[in-house]
Each structure stands twice: as C-alpha cells, then as structure tokens.
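User: Fold this one for me? It's CBS domain-containing protein.
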Amino acid sequence: MAQFQALNQVLQNPSSGAYFEMVQKRKKLPMSLQETLNKAFANIPVSTFPIVPGGKVLEIQANASVGEAIKILSDANILAAPVCESDDVKAVDWRERYLGTIDFSAIVLWVLESADIAAAALSASSAAAAGVGAGAAGALGALAAGGTGPVAAAGIAAAAVGAALAGGLAGDQVGKDASSAADTLGDDFYKVLLEEEPFASTTVRSIITSYRWAPFIPVAADSSMLGVLLLLSKYRLRNVPIIEDGKPTIKNFITQSAVVKGLDNCQGRDWFDCIAAQPITELGLPFMSNDEVISIKSSELVLEAFKLMKDNQIGGLPVIEGPEKNIIGSLSIKDIRFLLLNRELFAKFRELTVKDFMNTIASEARDLGKGTIPATCSLSSNLGSVIHILASKMVHRVYVVGANGKEVVGVITLRDIISCFIFEPPNYFENYLGLTSYEVKIDAFKTK
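Assistant: Here's what I get for CBS domain-containing protein.
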C-alpha cells in the first residue's frame, strides 16, 4: 500500500496541475490531433516499450555505501537506479525486494548536509586532541548505522561543538571554523566525508529514506503508455519502474530520456513529422521564460550551483556571464560525480568556482573524446530538431537563446517535450484511485 499512497500524494500535488494546465493552454495543436495521439498512446501497452540497454535493469543493493553507488551510477552513465535488498533476501514478489530509487538528486542532498557536518567535526577535532571522541560516540554511531537527515545532522553538529568546547575552543569560533574547515584542511576533508566513519558507512538504504527526491511508483507491464507518459510529464517523475505482478524483479525502467529517444526514432512517420515540423513557439515553447530560468554566474562557487538545484528541485542550470546572461556552459545534477570521484577536486570544493569546475570537466571530457558545449536552440527551431538534440546529446534540457545566439531566453526540458504530445483525460487517475484496496494490492499499479 505504500506505493499506492505515494501515487496519491503525487496526484494531489498542486504544482503538477498548474504546470500541465499552463502547457495545455499554450499548445496550439488541433484538439483532434491531440485526441488521436492520446488514443494511440492509451492503446500501446507498456510491455512493448524497448528494454533498457543490456536487457537487464541495473540495480544497487540497499546495503551498498554511498561511495559505491556513486561509482556504479557514474560508470553506467545513468542518473538513477532502483534499490533492492541483498540477494540473500529471498523475495517472491517485487514489493519484498525493492525499497525505492537512488539518484544523483538524493546524493546531492546528502553531500550538502554531510559536508557541513564533516566540516564541523574537523574544526572541532583540530581544537581537541580527542576530536569528536567519546562524547560524540552516540551521535556518530547513529549516523553510521543509517540514521541520517536533520535529526542526525543536529546530533553530529552538537557533538562536534561539544568536543570543541571540551578542547578549549570558543563556541562562536566553531561556527566560523566549520564553514572554512574544508578550505583549510583540504585532503583531510575528502577523507572524512567519503572514507571515515560515520560517513563511509552511510548506506544507500538511509539515503533513499531520508533524502528521497521523488516517490517510487512501479507500473504494471500491461498498463498503457499514456499513464507512464503522464507520470513522466505532468507528475514530474523522472523514471517509472515496470513490474510484473507475482515476480520479484523489475522488468524495465522507463525514463524521460528513453521516451524522448523513442520519439526521435519516430522521424519519418507522418504523425510525428506533422508535429515535429512545428516551430517551438507554435507549441508554446519554451514553457519557462527567460525571467524564470534559474542560472548561475561562472564566477560563483560550484557549491552554490548545487544548492540552487536542491532548493529549486531542478536537475540543471545554465552558466552565464555578463549583463545579457550569455551562456558559456551548463551544469547538471549528475556533474557532482566529478567532485565525488576526484579527490583533489573535492578537497577544495568549497572554494571552487563554477568556471574552474567546468574547465576540469572539459579537460576530462576531451580525454574521453566528448564535447562540453551547452545544448542550445533558437526561437525559430522546430520541435523535431530540439528532440533530436536531446536524444543525440543525451542531455535533459536545451537552452533557448536569443538572436545573438548567446543570451538565454528560455529552457526546454524532457518533461516539456513529453507534455507536448499528450493531455490528461477527465478523471483518468481518479478512476484508477477508485479501485478497491483489494484490487490495488493484487493488481499493483496498473494505469488505464
């Protein structure tokens, strides 16, 4: 019933309705065409959607460390993966096996909180020979055992302050030292956060419990694609696990990126080409205007960029320079892996500017034969070209630039693209929520 409750919460989110209502008002497609598309997607079963590359969904075990999860996601170049119990747990049904999804959004939340805690602990230990020592044992042990989040954070911070005071450090100095510990202690900071207790023992299980960005809502394999597309667009899910009732493993993992790639593969089909040829402005795009785009200046700290993503629940932002907000690059939430997998870079991340961080990424990208130019389009671009950019460059957003080719005037996301092709029929999910509890338990999360 937990996933049923999660779905109910998602459907009741007022921001989802406001966004989708705005999208529908701005779209200029004939209603007859939209109804035809909706009917087509409603008749396509989820089971026909292409299976993930390799034929098997990548999973991360709940007892894996955060560091291990980061490496798995980074090596596979994916944003998220389902979290499962260890293979020792003999599950007979998917409900017994899966705990949720881990993604870089949750990791960013954890890192931002843990960095402050680690800095406080380091500043305290620099003043007291015992470090956080015995006085902090209880709080540290709680975090090592998986107790993360605000309560555990407060416990660690308090323990650090207590140890500092015991060592003769003035209370008001702790706050100052905590904010600068990473700047002065360099490599030690990296070691504390990712290699020493309690942080090294922080498990994926605790991350998805305390820092979950979005709910885990599986969908049955015999559901329709329309329901999945609505979850990925109106209801802001980035991925939808596909399950078969009575079986213990996830059959497929449908992401926003996979859907847009599928749309790009539809080039040459009349129904797609008819829509793809439309200028983006005729579809009301970009839905987010220039004054709504959240950006970061290249001279600001990269830490502030990730905080902006966290505070606004977005997956990326443009990097700009000058009064005209000219785009010189972009950052995504997945880029935090460059910090966490690069000891030297991470050791100075509190003083690292966005520009210096991007230069490091660009250097690594060149070594791998990849480019780092931000994905952009113009107001005169058609929908098909934007879809192709998203699919071919494997990015989650395209920035719309003005006549000079540099000023950011809008942004188009994967969610926006999917929203262009569908609308929600009256009472679509309300009818689904009207199932009896027995049907929900047996049939799991079948959309119409």
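One thing worth pointing out: The radius of gyration is 23 Å.
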